[in-house]
Amino acid sequence: MKPFFTAVSKALLFCFFFIYLCQAAGAQQAQKKEYNHPQKSMQALRITAPPDIDGVLDEPIWQQADVATQFIQHRPTPGPVEKRPTEVRILYDDVALYIGAVMHDVSQDSIFREMSRRDDLGNTDWFGVFLDTYKDEINGFGFIVSPAGVQFDARYSSNGEDESWNAVWESSTRLEGTDWAAELKIPYSAIRFGNKPEQVWGLNFMRNRQSTREQFFWNHVEPSKDGFVNQWGLLQGLKNIEAPLRLSLTPYVSGYMERYPAEQAGAEDARYKHEFNFSGGLDLKYGINDAFTLDMTLIPDFSQVQSDNRVLNLSPFEQQFNENRPFFLEGTELFNKGDFFYSRRIGGAPVNYGAVYDQDKYAGYEVLQNPRETKMINGTKVSGRTQSGLGIGIFNAVVGRQHAVLQDSAGNRLEVETQPLTNYNIAVFDQSLKNNSYITLVNTNVMRQGGTYDANLTGALFRFANKANKYAVNGKAALSQRYIADGTDLGYMYQVGVGKISGNFLYNLSHSVKSDKYDPNDLGILFVNNTMDEEVNLSYNRYEPFWKMLNLYTNLGAVYSRRYDPNVFQNFVVYSNLNGTFKNFMSAGLNFNLEPVETYDFFEPRTAGRYYTFPVNYRAGGWYSTDYRKRLALDLEFSYRLFEENDRRSLNFGVSPRFRVNNQLSFSYSFQSGNSYDDIGFFTNTEVVNGTGEPEKKIIFGLRDVNSVYNSLSGSYIFNNRMSLALRVRHNWSKVLTREFFALEPNGSLVADTYRPETPHQNYNSFNLDMVYSWWFAPGSEISIVWKNAFEENVHLPEPRYFDNFSHTLSSPQSSTFSIKVLYYLDYLTMRSKLAKR
Q1: Based on the structure, what is the number of domains in the chain?
Q2: Strand 151-157 vs strand 160-162: parallel, antiparallel, or unpaired?
Q3: How far apart are CA 600 and CA 610, in angstroms?
């Protein structure tokens, strides 16, 4: 027991040291100046003739409107009123809101205006308007424009900011002496609002002044207070406006050419094979009523989305990929509530992808083709929110059949279905409540044609905060069901937490349970079930400048974990983070993880009921980031982990410089290196004969060194705010050298074993090149030309040096695709207006 108490003492000593640092930081603070900023409101002015959206506020009607000014600093010092005034006015008619803003400054050189792609503001000033059209203080819309005319829009909800949401709206900007001005037209078709004779909306404006890294809100947003939308002002005076008929079509046509190594198709008569394809499809948006919208995509084409960053995965869990497909990114904030939905399941790997490698079932066959992805036929979303704050979302997608091709030694081919025709469904009901609270019901369902199993999940989540928005209780629960041939697998989970959510000092206590049969992975993603976790988390944050810091965020927590079945100890970890920004706008952070006792890994053995005794270990890491306003900026990161087992340790570090040549051309490079020495992990399962002559499975672990190198180079040239050219090249290399082998004992320990495979090592490479030309030639309409190059290989002969390995990667047969896609946005109201003028 002595090592146990020694380890715990180390953990407690670290905790006390951490708390001391927080108190010392607090002692450095001067007396904080108190500011009293009541909620603001302004009137919108109805007009009969719309202004020209040209960035020049020269129409006389602008001078008759209310002026929103006296913006309040949010960063770096919350509270004081801006010194360089901002003036904003709002007009409206039966079609749209019109926002005119003038941002006063000291000179044009002080106005940063880097060009960038849509929804990527970069190193620039910007102005934004935020609307809470249902006044529920949870959900809102944001529209932002930079001096270079780059647009950014987002949705806000209890899930945070959804930057992937896109709307069709107009904006124009112009420099005027030492100032810059912006005009925005936000059509009612781009937002949702209730049917009332007089509307009162939540409203806020925001200005970013990049030269001084200052941010200002019209209605003060206190960083120590929980929530964003609940801290907005009011927009009044909107009378007799009605939600218009919202109908838009976005047809597309695309041409696609692919070149890939011939052996992927089982052919030997040529080095490469070529495929050509010409297709078309349609996206449709229809406003069912003032609150709800129907979104449909027919025969979607995702060939132009960004390539996945594939790596060598030595863990027992699947690799999780980012979602890059527009249909699954836009307007999905309702469906993502509770984290029950992992959209990459739709169109992802076939459910029976690995079945064709079963040597017992397909003995004598070689796999010629086994597509990694399924094909989505169509998708439908219906979503919106009623005037009473009830959000409703219905999602449906259909995925077609997928087949693998096998061949025996005689040349006979066999087609095996790896994915049946599959229907995916999600239903969400989300009720907004007072005090930034909510209650939500979620159901996900997967139905597959034929004998493959079906799945269903029903979940609920809630959050209740007090009137002062200082304390809250939250939780969620779910029941998962898998309908298999001989019965139903039922599993459940629940989680409940309580804590202080506003102020400098925050805390949260939580308890969660995931049963051994809980499995949401048919339409969600979960890495670990069969657990019971208790967690405590303490935070002390400083939001205003003190000493040499602009802000400081600290965090200390611990997680105690047991198995659900059987009820045995599993893990205990203490963690902490400390990060902040200095007054020279350099930022840095430190983080620590301690596992001060031996823990038990029930997943690495890849066999139910078995576990590996994981050693005591300590990890420390940090990062450093320079001022992004500079032409040359640099990010650094590192981590070191030490195990009380042999000479086991790991070291990871990375460096990422970025260089801005001018306001149109920029480059960024990232290098990351990961090195694990004397690492121990699962290698294989073998079958042996025990003392009674019966066969039994032996679990083999390997002692190995793992070295990984990641390189990424990105560059972009922005012609204007509608046209861009972007390039990204990525290369992942991982080398695994396994030199000793051990058998896993029933008590979780390892003993030396005589197992010796012919190929104990691995050499993994993945290479991607994506070049994208994009031209938004009209609102909502785009021409894109994409060239992709890809290579992936996992062999058993490691290359000793990086550049030899990289040369081999470049000279190996690679898959290439070239595609052209044209989308044209057709809006019913715009077309009707044009026809009426003829």
Answers
A1: 2
A2: antiparallel
A3: 10
Question: Residue 364, exposed/middle/buried by CB under 10 A (0-12, 13-18, 19+)?
Answer: exposed
Report residue 124 as tokens: 């620039």
Beta bridge pairs of residue 155: 141, 162
- The answer to whether residue 417 sits within a structural domain is no
Structure tokens at 778: 């009209």
Strand, helix or coil at 371?
coil
Closest residue by Cα to residue 524 from 479, 590, 569: 479
Spell 574-587 as b/e; 16+ CB within 10 A means b.
bbbbbbbbeeebeb
Q: Are residues 223 and 274 in the same domain?
A: no
Looking at the fold, whether 159 and 263 belong to one and the same domain comes out as no
* Residues 195 and 249 reside in one and the same domain: no
User: Would residue 826 count as lying in a domain?
Assistant: yes
Pairwise CA distance, residues 772 & 120, whole Å: 15
Tell me: do 135 and 277 sit in the same domain. no
Q: In the listed set 239, 263, 293, which residue is the last one of a domain according to the structure?
A: 239
**C-alpha torsion angle, residues 64, 70, 76, 80 (rounded to 10):** 180
CA gap 587, 583 in Å, rounded: 9
d(CA 738, CA 316): 18
Q: What are phi and psi of 416, to 5 degrees?
A: -120, 125
Instruction: Tell me the pairing of strands 587-595 and 365-369.
Output: unpaired
Beta bridge pairs of residue 381: 295, 395
Cα–Cα distance, 406 to 416 (Å, whole number): 8
**Residues of the chain below pLDDT 70:** 1-34, 262-271, 689-691, 693, 833-838
Order of strands, sheet of 179-187, starting from the edge strand that comes earlier in the sequence: 45-46, 86-92, 96-103, 179-187, 170-176
User: HSE on the CB side for 402, CA within 13 Å?
Assistant: 26
Tokens of 813: 């047969």
How far apart (Å, rounded) are the C-alpha atoms in residues 438 and 436? Answer: 7
Rounded CA-CA distance 277/225 in Å is 54
What is the per-residue DSSP string for 764-803? EEEEEEEEEEEEEEETTEEEEEEEEEEEEEEESS--SSHH
277 and 171 in one domain?
no
**What is the reported pLDDT for 13?**
53
> For residues 538 and 542, what is the distance between their CA atoms, to the nearest angstrom?
14
List, in order, residues 6 or more apart from 609 with CB less than 8 Å away.
Answer: none
SS3 assignment, position 108:
helix
The separation between CA 496 and the C-alpha centre of its own chain, rounded to angstroms, equals 24
Q: How far apart are the first and last CA of the chain?
A: 89
> Does residue 133 share a domain with residue 261?
no
Could you count the other beta carbons within 10 Å of the beta carbon of residue 354?
11
Name which of 82, 80, 36, 216 is nearest 545 in CA terms.
80
In a domain, 153, yes or no: yes
| Cβ atoms of residues 218 and 88 within 8 Å | yes
Q: Containing domain of residue 229, as a range?
A: 39-239
* DSSP per position, 257-303: EEEEEGGGGT--S-SEEEEEEEEEEEEEEEESSSSEEEEEEES---T
- Angstrom distance (rounded) from CA 721 to CA 151: 8
Same domain for 262 and 231?
no
Count CB neighbours of 479 within 10 A: 17
Measure the CA–CA gap between 401 and 313, rounded to whole angstroms: 27
Q: Is residue 171 part of a domain?
A: yes
Judgement on whether residues 165 and 252 belong to the same structural domain of the protein: no
The rounded distance, in Å, linking the Cα atoms of 89 and 65 is: 6
Q: Which of 239, 263, 291 lies at the terminal end of a domain, its last residue?
A: 239
Amino acid at 569: F
- The CATH number of residue 101's host domain is 2.60.40.1190
